[in-house]
Design a protein that fits this description.
By secondary structure, the chain is α+β, with helices and mostly antiparallel strands. The chain contains four helices and six strands; from the N terminus they run βαβαββαβαβ. The longest helix is centred in the N-terminal third of the chain and has 14 residues. The N and C termini lie close together (about 10 Å).
Length: about 110
């Protein structure tokens, strides 16, 4: 039987590392996906050029930001990792995700 294990991580980097480690070290893992928050995807597209933020005090003032500033703010958002595996590997996947810093770990059949 195939099961799905879902865990939340504090940053996309932690989720990517955990999914990669699970796929390398646990048997009967079929796929691993990462669901990024919408703010992260927006930050990726905004980082392609010069961004300006208008100050509410005066419309003539603007502050230029680079893509790194936008990326650092949204990297603090929780990211969800989903691993599809065999029912015999659910406990190993959950233990590995817990060891890698996963929160709210649960499985579904």
């Amino acid at each position: 039987m195939i099961s799905r294990v879902i865990a939340e991580f504090e940053s996309p980097e932690l989720a990517e590392t955990a999914v990669q480690r699970v796929r390398e070290s646990v048997e009967y893992v079929y796929s691993g996906n990462i669901m990024y928050p919408p703010e992260t995807v927006k930050g990726h597209f905004l980082s392609r050029g010069e961004n300006h933020a208008v100050l509410p005090v005066s419309y003539s003032n603007s502050i230029g930001t680079n893509g790194n500033t936008v990326g650092q703010v949204v990297r603090r958002k929780n990211t969800t990792a989903c691993v599809i595996c065999g029912s015999g590997a659910v406990e190993n996947v959950m233990a590995m995700m817990n060891a890698m810093g996963g929160m709210n770990i649960h499985s579904a059949v």
